[in-house]
Model the fold of this input.
Amino acid sequence: MENKVLDTLLQRRSCRKYEDRQITDEELNAVLKAGMYAPSGMGKQSPIIIAVQNKEIRDRISKLNASVMGASSDPFYGAPTVLVVLADNSVGTFVEDGSLVIGNMLNAAESIGLGGCWIHRAKQVFESQEGKELLKEIGIIDPDRYTGVGNCILGYPAKGGQNPALARKEDYIIYVK
Ligand SMILES: Cc1cc2nc3c(=O)[nH]c(=O)nc-3n(C[C@H](O)[C@H](O)[C@H](O)COP(=O)(O)O)c2cc1C
Done:
């Protein structure tokens, strides 16, 4: 079946190498809009997206993320934009809601020629004292209300940063017709 959306869904790959230049506001906003229009349990829109392009803040989040792993390298692979997705943990579907936001944003990024990747450990980062202080600094009054779901990194893909898709496992689908 010929369809551009389906092509995008099949072509998207995680990108782990980026050019050293920022994406445009138009691109950023297109990706954010796709995120905001993701489905959410009972339409409650539990997630929030913190769009980080300030280098100092980006690097602070990167360091906190690395420290969760006990690593010192940049877990964001040099990507200049980090979209941190947290969600209101009083909503029963907050993890699913936040995950769909990230999925939409990764596919939107692919559709406009950006590279992207889900980077984990947002939960641990933003339940730490330093993470909560950072959230307060950027204007979130009640950081305890939000749990980190994941980070969607974005940038222009550099050569060699994407691997081909693995073959899909044989028993992925069970047809019941
Ligand atoms: C929940 C989740 C967590 C992930 N965490 C990371 C991560 O911390 N670092 C990373 O490099 N990739 C991470 N990824 C990307 C996966 O490794 C990647 O999606 C997978 O290898 C399949 O490759 P593809 O995205 O190119 O299809 C994560 C993906 C998901 C869905």
